[in-house]
Amino acid sequence: MTGWESRKTGRLPSRRAVLAGLGACAGSAFWRPGLLRAEGRMGHEAPGLPPVREEDALIAFGHTGPITDGGWTTAHDRGVQAVRQAFPKLRTVYVESVPYSADATRIFRQFVAEGANMVFSTSNYGDFIRDVAIRAPNVAFLECDGVNVTDNLGWYYVTHWYPSYIIGIAAGLMTKTNRLGYIGTFPIPSVYASANATLLGAQSVNRAVTMHAVAINSWFDPQAAAQAATALVDSGCDFLCGITDDPAYLRVAESRGIKAAMWNLDMRRFGPNAYVSAVVLDFAAFYVEQVRARLNGTWKSGAHFLTLGHGTDRDGWGQSVPEDIRMRADAMRDRILAGYTPFQGPIRDNNGTIRVPAGKVMDDNAIYGWDWGVQGMTGLG
Question: How confident is the model at residue 21 (pLDDT cuts 50, 70, 90)?
């Protein structure tokens, strides 16, 4: 191997790609272990991808951050470890902190040159990965948070807006100032979906709640996250949430005696008294399923949403969350698992304009491309 280690791992020296202009998504599938159910324009056959013997297979992962970040990339790395456990004879390689630049193209090309049968990118690399996939028709590609579906390139993402809404219910019942603080990264759809869903959940039980967001222009900048959190608490926010990859704002909440909800993984050890819950991610079953399909010669490209209870969920409740609040929030979780969606009109933007009329529903594709803040939101357009 050249450029990274090849035992069961690999390494290279930026951070998660900044999504710009996702726009409307073309079709989706709701993923369950062992099942892909098509919605809309879904599914490309993948011609020329015959079965691969496990001992001959090479599966490559391009990570957007370090696997030790304790958040997003750590969650993906756990999925990689699940692949290694399920298929001990194959080889995996990975590159950490793939930059959002032409260097990404070079890295994906190197995966192909080294003989990769399947390539995962753990964030959106747009044309940097699409151009490589076009020139490597015998390799399967999957892009997290992507938009492109071709014969051999698909995308996958987590419907994190549902656990965000559930946690928002707890926030709306626990806040005393009715001001939630949100530590954002960039004004992109995944951030809008996270913040809006949390606020709508809170407002469903407490109409007086507002949210004040601060964008720190980074997925992993503990110092900036802590500074933003401090400013939000100083302005009267008594419940913090966000979408960063580190526990910095949880530590601020712990030190200031307020509550916080996190993202990616269980982080309660960094603020046990402040911790309410977290949007947690689990890519293991999906990764194993996709690799198995590639080895069997049955893999198809497509668009995959990992849904509530099957790739994303709320974490266990924190020690300070009263039982009645847990039960009220979890009643919504049960309804969503049964097929209900809380994203129903009327939904107004932060200018008061109705964006989702009464009787209409925002489906997952619409939420995936969310680019406006709901009523009561400041700091996100």
Answer: very low
Predicted confidence (pLDDT) per residue in 130-159, tens digit: 999 999 999 999 999 999 999 999 999 999
Question: Do the beta carbons of residue 260 and residue 278 sit within 8 Å?
Answer: no
Cβ atoms 156, 123 nearer than 8 A: no
Same domain, 78 and 128: yes
Provide the number of structural domains found in the chain.
2
Q: What is the CATH number of the domain that holds 244?
A: 3.40.50.2300
Going by C-alpha positions, the residue among 157, 158, 123, 120 that lies closest to residue 141 is 120
Nearest to 21 by CA among 104, 126, 94, 164: 126
- Alpha-carbon distance values, 309 to 29, 46, 192, 337, 362 (Å): 15, 29, 22, 8, 20
C-alpha distances (whole Å) from 120 to each of 197, 239, 283, 291 are: 28, 35, 12, 10
How confident is the model at residue 48, as a pLDDT?
61
**Residues 35 and 142 placed together within one structural domain of the fold:** yes
How is residue 229 annotated by DSSP? H
What range defines the domain where residue 113 resides?
Answer: 28-159+282-306
Q: Which two tokens stand for residue 310?
A: 């099957």
Model-level pTM?
0.88
- Cα–Cα distances (Å) from 185 to 85, 189, 338, in that order, read 34, 11, 32
Are 192 and 245 found together in one domain? yes
The amino acid sitting at 349 is: D
- The DSSP line for 317-333 is PPTTS-HHHHHHHHHHH
Asked, for residue 41, whether it belongs to a domain, the answer is yes
Cα 217 from Cα 220, distance rounded (Å): 9
- 179 and 206 belong to one structural domain: yes
Angle subtended at Cα 380 by Cα 375 and Cα 381, rounded to the nearest 5 degrees = 80
Report the alpha-carbon distance of residue 225 to residue 180 in Å, rounded: 15
The Cα 19–Cα 314 span in angstroms is 24
347: which strand partners? 356
- Output the CA–CA distances (angstroms, integers) from residue 53 to 59, 228, 295, in the order listed: 12, 50, 6
Checking DSSP bridges between strand 312-314 and strand 275-281, what pairing results, if any? antiparallel
Residues 226 and 351 in one domain: yes
